[in-house]
Amino acid sequence: MTLNEAYNILGLSPGTEMGEVKRRYRRLIRQVHPDAGPEAGLAHPYPVHEINLAYEVLKKEADHENTSADFRKARPKTSFNHFRRGSHSRKQLHWDAPVNEQAYREREIFCWAESQDGERLGMFSIGRGKYLWKIEEEFSLFLRSVYQCGKEILDEIDASQNCRGQPSFRQEIQARLTFLLAQQFIDSTALLQELAGGNKGTEEAEANHSPVSEDQKDRIFYLPAMLEAEDRIFSLKEKESLYPSRLFHRRLYVKNQSGKELGYLSFLDDRLYYVVVPLFEQRRVRIKLQAAGDAGIKKGKRKAYHRLHLWIKLTEENPVSFPENLNLQIQKLLEVYGGWIK
């Protein structure tokens, strides 16, 4: 993401002081993220993960300008036990994580650098490869890595055609590309186990009078979720069943028993966005949705946020896999981009 793109996402002019950037970022997060409570104002066209990334880009630039003289004193936040050193050459550093050999492109593994008093000065790369994300890698840095990977690909297309795509079109392509690339570096089952925890899905299901057989206990996960609804008037009864309606622009829309579409599914934990939505797209899961009742509603001027119970059941024999058509989807998307800028 370029600086101009980051300023555009936050709705600021290039060169805006960092203090104003921080204030704008906090206002937007309150506006678009239900966990912080919606804020009065116009709906923002960019999702929370892009707002976070834009802020990180501008913060990194400000940190670099303010602390470049001290950068040599930096030390890595992540312990060197997390990667192996084949030699003293930086090129020989390898991140200690499983790999997906079928991934479209290698990615950088980023690590924060800190001053001696713990102040973050910026970030640097400690390795490059087709490594899967694991919990030791801060998720915001993982997203930066995947975004950078997609940016490199689009920059290569621009260079080969001696032309650059129109900014708004390129941003849309890069958002879709980032989403596809991220799927190649995430073990959905492992992350579900990390975020949902043990047999919590089984326990929640049984508490709601849904018996679970022994062979299903490691394939059901419970996740707290939210329904983002444009219609602020309707209400949901406690434990009212809801159903998937459609997938559109990487969002799962939800309907009630009468077939009325109410809104789309969202999560308080941004990481789930990159796990759950792809599982829906790949039809690898069955789900059960229940409303938490009116007590779980937060209302803003333009949206209402209803708390939901979500159960996910993995359906395929071997859930630890990566769909073969991801590379085909990526290639098709790049052909669309390359064809448009010719």
> How widely separated are the two ends?
22 Å
Spatial order of the strands forming the largest sheet? 6-9-8-7-10-12
Mean pLDDT: 75
| N-to-C SSE string, H for helix and E for strand | HHHEEEEEHHHHEEEEHEEEH
Number of helices: 9
Cα radius of gyration in angstroms: 21 Å
Gross morphology: globular
Content of β-strand: 15-25%
Structural class: alpha+beta
Uncertain spans:
36-42, 67-92, 198-203, 209-214
Helix content: 25-40%
Biggest beta sheet summary: 6 strands, antiparallel, barrel
Count of DSSP E strands?
12
Structural commentary:
Helices cover 37% and strands 22% of the residues. With 342 residues, the chain is of the alpha+beta class. A 6-stranded antiparallel β-barrel has the order 6-9-8-7-10-12. Helix 4 (139-161) crosses helix 5 (167-184). It is globular, with a radius of gyration of 21 Å. 30% of the residues are buried. Mean pLDDT is 75; it is low at 36-42, 67-92, 198-203 and 209-214.
Give a quick summary of the entry.
This protein has 342 residues and is an alpha+beta fold. It has nine helices and twelve strands.
Write the layout of secondary structure elements.
Elements: H1 3-10, H2 18-32, H3 48-67, E1 75-76, E2 83-85, E3 93-95, E4 107-114, E5 120-129, H4 139-161, H5 167-184, H6 188-196, H7 200-207, E6 220-229, E7 241-248, E8 251-255, E9 261-266, H8 273-281, E10 285-291, E11 297-299, E12 304-314, H9 326-341
Antiparallel strand pairs: 1-4, 2-3, 4-5, 6-9, 6-12, 7-8, 7-10, 8-9, 10-12, 11-12
